[in-house]
Amino acid sequence: MKKTHVKTNDVIFQTVTKVVAFIIIIYSLHLFFSGHYTPGGGFIGGLMTASAFVLMLLAFDIKTVVNTLQVDYIKLTATGLLIAVLTGVGSFFFDVPFLTHTFDYVQLPLLGKTALATAVLFDLGVYLVVIGVTMTIIQTIGETE
Amino acid sequence: MNNLIILPILIPLLTGIILIFFQKNIRIQKVISLIAALTGVVIAAIVVQTVHTSGIQTLEIGNWQPPYGIVLVADMYASLLVLATSIIGFTALLFAFYSISEDRERFYFYPGVQFLILGVSGAFFTGDLFNLFVFFEVMLMSSYMLIVLGSSKTQLRESIKYILVNVISSALFVIAVAYLYAVTGTLNMADLSVKIAEMGQSGFLTVIAILFLIIFGLKGAIFPLYFWLPGSYQAPPSVVTALFGALLTKVGVYSITRVYTLIFYHEPGFTHQILAWLAALTIIFGVIGAIAYWDIKKIIIYNIITAVGVILFGIAANTPNAVEGSVYYLVHDMIIKGALFFLVGAIITVTGTSNLRKFSGLIASKPLLGWMFFIATLSLAGIPPLSGFIGKLKIVQGGFEAGEYTIAFVVLLSSLLVLYSVMKIFINGFWGEPSNEAEFKAKSTKGLYVPIAILLALSIAYGFGIEFISPYISQAADTLLDPTIYIQAVLKE
């Protein structure tokens, strides 16, 4: 953006962002959880969440967003990787081949009959890695002078 | 069901992830990666022994039967290479502790090394063509990172070339896999082999076979696709070059071997003949480069290319002796290239230059370094008691059996020129009037000799212990010569 001495005022942009960012994040979570039966999953969900963060980066400056979210994205990536790998390592304890996944139907209080699959945990890893990598790339490039 | 063979892939992966959390604390990074590397060596040795006693080990990932799921296959060939990889990884870590600057260590050098080893081990063990592609990418991404880490001007320039070449070859890989999938409808290597044997290797499949030769040739640096290698391997620090020279090109060689012995072996008159002549040209251009340069790093880099040619000629000749020799030579070459690049790194640390004309008489100030280099050169050239001999002998013998007299003579002649190229370093660098003796003597080589000594000891033991090693090698060669052993182990028919 061209630097001018006149202070630009993006009150509309910032206000809209405050509302829209939440909608995007909720939609991304919806995409993340619907991945097993309908299109969606960890990758697109993670990209969506990251896009909400990017929108915040556009509306506010980097410092504000970093102070608000307080996340070390490289560590977030590593955590995601760790979760994904550990779901595979779990197979060692059940005497089945690596990365064997299982699922079960459970009666949950509010949701009723729900299928819980360990593949979701793997997808959670993917989700975190995608957010972490996207935000690391964008923030690193953004901070470089 | 056997989770043992996932461990050589899983351990570097977990270690790499954990190391990211300890970015600031270099001491902990060193301890963790050293422990992981040692465990890796032990596990790889256990895998080799298991494969030796109870045959090919397979692991159906996620409990899906092949050809529907990904299957990991540890035959003797792959297991030996994984063992060599973990040994190289371990020694490279030892070398890196004393030679890598702290600003590199701080920026994820050790995780990078772990992910590189993960990619290489995975590429050796996988039994699925697309999974091979994925592990290639894991390996290449970490190598992009290691080649550019430090951001000196040459590193930036060379990494652009390196990435460009590899992105193109990866795209070709995907295209080739797509063709093959369109023709056969499967990606599992054992299943591919069965399907192609049923339908016969038509002209179209031979074209795909050549396409794979081009792709893996770009990774493994065969003539005329080696053009990117000398510059790219020159740029990073010696320890990274050692990892690249000992591991990365060998994965390309392994893939050509796997594909040409397991999948496309029905038209050897065409495919294997092309491979044989490309191997011969690779050898010739490698030695030309090796004798032309006065830069010690460049000389060893061109020797990688020569070795790739020799190994592939063994596969192309396709007789029992030649294939066995090729396995011998591949394992030997991984060890000795690691040792030579460490030696070059140590010499550069002492002299501050890689230009052979700028120093001489090094043996006066660093005698141990000189004699270790001497042993390494003899081993590289294939002087009888040392490790390079038996492989070349068998390859030449196999070449004669296959009636490839010209190329077999090229292999013999190349040994002479390889010896000349490395002896040139020894004679000009270590003999002669000592230049700046006091300065060289003052330079610390603390810790640098240990990994070199380990690899040289292995090389000597490999040469003297042929009787002990040969059952393993012939088991590896048997699988390569008879694809049905592999297919039965995977598909369990």
As laid out across the biggest beta sheet of chain A, the strand order is 1-2
Q: Largest interface, with Cβ-Cβ < 8 Å? A: A-B, 18 and 17 residues
N-to-C series of helices and strands of chain A = HHHHEEH
In percent, how helical is the residue content of chain A? Answer: 55-70%
Number of domains of chain A: 1
Structural class of chain A: mainly alpha
Can you tell me the residue ranges of chain B where pLDDT is under 50 for at least 5 consecutive residues? none
Distance between the termini of chain A: 14 Å
Q: How large is the share of residues in beta strands of chain B?
A: under 5%
The major β-sheet of chain B equals: 2 strands, antiparallel
Helix count of chain B equals 22
Quick overview:
Chain A has 145 residues and is mainly α.
Q: Explain this structure to me?
A:
The complex is a heterodimer of chains A (145) and B (493). Chain A has one domain. Chain A is 63% helix and 8% strand. Chain A has five helices and two strands; from the N terminus they run H-H-H-H-E-E-H. In chain A, helix 1 packs antiparallel against helix 2 and helix 4 packs antiparallel against helix 5. Chain B has one domain. Chain B contains 22 helices and two strands. Chain B is an all-alpha fold and 493 residues long. In chain B, helix 1 runs antiparallel to helix 2, helix 2 runs antiparallel to helix 3 and helix 13 packs antiparallel against helix 18. Helices cover 78% and strands 2% of the residues of chain B. Chains A and B meet through helix 4 of A and helix 1 of B.
